[in-house]
Amino acid sequence: MSAACVRWVLSHTVRATCAIGPGFRTWASRFLQHSEGSNIIPGSWRLSPLCTAVDDTQQTPAPKRKKQTPQAHGTISSVGRKIPQRQIQVISETGENLGIMHRSDVIRIMDEQGLKIVLLSENKDPPVYRLMSGKQIHEEQLKLREKQKGKAAPVQVKELTFSSGIASHDLSTKLKQVESWLEKKHHVRITLRSGRGEPANNLDTTLEQIVQQMEVMVGFVSKPKVVRDGQAAMCILRPPSAKELSQREKNLSAAPQSDTESNASTVSNTDT
């Protein structure tokens, strides 16, 4: 029993001494006074609670981390001959699904064809692996690096402003600067202002003609348009995409063939 309980019992006992003799009341009062001034009651009684305290706090188990494939970390590499799973799903080097195979059979194919094995997805059951050559792995690593560079590097927007009355030499210098920025994968905002005393007519058409003078292929984030109540024209250039470059190559390769066919038809008409 704690000291608080003992004091409570004694205090009520003292109050009830109206029916008991004065001697007991005097003894009880002396006991209370003496217990307050001395250490007659053990300290463990005074400090310990009536019941044992229970710690309700429970340690929350750490959440399980989801296993990530090597592609999630931006890497791809061969796992070698140490395949931890017995049964795995295998994709051939050409992308064909070979189905579920035992790892010993996969290792035998690797030895016979000189291929490597790459983990594609560990979360599936069974895990998915792909047979790849060293060249294929190297190419995939390069692709992943390019993707990481594209995500990590923020696009910078450079700005260039000049008037419609700019000299041809100065214009050529500024266009060279624009080409340099585009080679560094920057975007370029070009603003063409109307010159002093010059009419602000067809500034968007003039700006488009200036862009066509550039020696490199460009793409548009925003095509030339009139701004500032017709007093200027603005466009935003970007480096061409891979699709645009591929289409340009096709157009260039198709152009000589069409010229040859037209020349041949001209010769045949002349012979006739």
Summary of the model, kept short:
With 272 residues, the chain is α/β, with parallel strands linked by helices.
Keywords for this structure?
single chain; 272 residues; alpha/beta; Ubiquitin-like (UB roll); Translation Initiation Factor IF3; 3 domains; four-stranded mixed beta sheet; 8 strands; 44% helix; disordered C terminus; Translation initiation factor IF-3, mitochondrial; transit peptide; ribosome binding; initiation factor; translation initiation factor activity
Task: Tell me what you see in this structure.
The chain has 272 residues and is an alpha/beta fold. It folds into three domains: 45 residues, no CATH class; 79 residues, Ubiquitin-like (UB roll) (Roll); 87 residues, Translation initiation factor 3 (IF-3), C-terminal domain (Translation Initiation Factor IF3, 2-Layer Sandwich), CATH 3.30.110. The strands form two sheets. The chain has a four-stranded mixed sheet. The protein has a four-stranded mixed sheet with strand order 5-6-8-7, with helices on one face. Helix 1 runs antiparallel to helix 2. The longest helix is centred in the last third of the chain and has 30 residues.
